[in-house]
Design a protein that fits this description.
Helices cover about 35% and strands about 25% of the residues. The chain has about 250 residues and is α/β, with parallel strands linked by helices. The two termini are about 15 Å apart.
Amino acid sequence: MFGRKRNGKKNGKATATSEHLIELRDVIKTYRSPAGDFTALKEIDLQVDGGEFVAVIGKSGSGKSTLINMITGIDRPSQGEVVIGNTSVHRLNEDKLAQWRGRNVGVIFQFFQLLPTLTAIENVMLPMDFCNMYNRRQRKERAMQLLEQMELAEHAYKLPSSLSGGQQQRVAIARALANDPPILVADEPTGNLDSKTAESVFRLFEALVDEGKTILMVTHDQDLAERVARMVIIADGEIVEAHRVGSAASREG
């Protein structure tokens, strides 16, 4: 079994109650509009184990972002089930979903999505404030520790506009880690970075997986995708291929 097997639930965090941490079962997503219905996902079945590093690749409009939105709870399936740990995410109301997401999923965006009027450390503290995690002193200490991990401690009190793209992405990763979620979802996290900075971000992801995080990374970068544990290829709303790659494949071979 590739990945880590976890049981039960700890501090409101999702942990696998069975073989898989993330499971999508027969997920269909249809968008309705005056121009007609459009089915973005078609009977998707997907399982991800705790501690896996999975790349989701596909062309624009293939459904990969919609797939990720199912896992983060940003969107809901028209049909099917999304089960993460022991939580049926598709059944949660909006308030419970927001709290669940804040504790269980860290989301990293291509364009960083940092609040421009807040400093780096304030951006990292936001998820802790929202989910009422830790006390005020602990929030500041944890935010600084995460920025130190990202090698950004000296930039803690700078606004995003004074940071480079790579530095902003590292602040965004620190923010995603603020509540110590078991799952990180990264949507084209290196798409707006130069190759050297993209490589450093990818190595950071690898280190986080080594520490036990589960990462799903949407990417157009075939070279990066081939270095993760497993690649999921999606086209026209369907998973057309899913296989182990990189070091995992060589070990099994």
